[in-house]
Amino acid sequence: MSVETPEALPPRGAPDWLWYLGVASIGLALYLVYGQLIPFSEWATALFPVARHSHSGEAIAFFLYDVPKVLLLLTGIVFVTGVLRSWFSPEKTRAILAGKRQIWGYPLAAFLGVLTPFCSCSSVPLFIGFVSAGIPLGVTFSFLIAGPMVGPVGLGLLYGLVGWKIATIYLVFGFSIATLAGFVMGRMGLERYLQDWVREMNAGPVGDLPEERLTLVDRLKIGVEQVREIVGKVWIWVLVGIGIGAAIHGYVPEAMMLKIMGGEAWWSVPAAVVVGVPMYTNAAGVIPIVEALLGKGAALGTALAFMMSVIALSLPEMIILKQVLTYRLIGIFIAVVAAGILATGYLFNFLL
Q: Is the Cβ–Cβ distance between 287 and 157 less than 8 Å?
């Protein structure tokens, strides 16, 4: 598989109106396809000689839904951020968010993440778009952490499980972890640990013409080139990451987790984080497991630490992020977020 400029787009020397029509047509087509992903995944899964609700059936359906979803999101977001980047160069973006004003970037990014109903792998396309646009790394991490950890779907399900008071406390803690972790990582000067191609993109010009001379069609072409360059580097790792996540999703070792986290021992919170990181599901998928853990006697903080680790530090997410971040930066990200999750788990266990 390779990522090329879609055939619906006109050649570079075509009239402007053909570019407008081509981009609008492709955008509409992607939107319509996105709305049919669930029926498609169910139809395609039925073609396999497995029972739909077996372990294999769950894994296949998950893979067939999540792969096109993430690739469609990645394509659309990278295109939009590429077009916007033609107006706001990395230098301008950093200048806007520099100094005291950057302080507000962390809670604003975390707030945007709270409003975004994406799981961790679905949040990665936005993260990649932000990073490639030159937005400060710490600010982008605040979004990446808050998106899956404190999204509206998870909060709604958690409210139904434990009530509004605990759900609100969870919201406050998750938002605080995202904001503070982004702030800490922003102060560490970690941009040097981005992959080389990302640093080169941020350091280079957005087009062959000066920004003030770019036409709208020139900016659309920049967006297309961004899709070709970024999606072309990442797509294979989307398949690998979600493939691993689908296998884990279909074969969740729930009995083992209940045995490890069914008590209130001091080591139950770090054990919950260690068990949660290799897994992959969204908030809607992890809430039933949390409910089962609580029903078996797990402490609330332990169960919430498990939930946070599953949806904020999943292994498939790290595999995809490897195409943008170096191993050292991924390690720092995991360490900072895990520290916040551990603190939340212990605090909930102490207070409740």
A: yes
Q: Which two tokens stand for residue 172?
A: 């406050």
Backbone dihedral angles phi then psi of residue 104, each to the nearest 5 degrees: -75, -15
Question: What distance in Å separates the CA atoms of residue 288 and residue 158, rounded to the nearest whole number?
Answer: 10
For 207, the token pair is 């087009």
Which pTM value belongs to this model? 0.63
CA distance 167 to 160: 9
Q: Is-contact 73 31, C-beta < 8 A?
A: no
CA dist., res. 211 & res. 308, Å (int): 42
Give the total residue count for the chain. 352
Angle, helices 232-250 vs 55-85, to 10°: value is 150
What radius of gyration, in Å, describes the C-alpha atoms of the chain?
Answer: 21
Cα dihedral sign, 30-34-39-43: positive
48 DSSP 8-state letter: S
- Degrees to nearest 5, angle at CA 34 with 30 and 37: 135
**What phi, psi does 194 have (nearest 5°)?**
-70, 155
pLDDT per position as a tens digit, 70-127: 788 778 877 887 787 677 655 555 555 444 456 788 888 888 777 765 565 666 667 7
| Contact yes or no for 312/120 (Cβ under 8 A) | yes
* C-alpha atoms less than 13 angstroms from C-alpha of 57 in its C-beta half-sphere: 10
Of the candidate ranges 52-56, 97-101, 129-133, 283-287, the one whose mean pLDDT is the lowest: 97-101
Distant-in-sequence contacts of 189-196, Cβ < 8 A, 24+ apart: 190/137, 190/138, 190/329, 190/332, 191/137, 193/325, 193/326, 193/328, 193/329, 193/332, 194/131, 194/137, 194/324, 194/325, 194/326, 194/329, 195/323, 195/324, 195/325, 195/326
Neighbours of 305 (CB within 10 A): 30
What φ, ψ does residue 151 adopt, rounded to 5°? -70, 165
CA quadruple 82, 87, 89, 92: dihedral, nearest 10: -140
Residues 6+ apart with CB under 8 A from 128: 74, 77, 78, 230, 234, 324
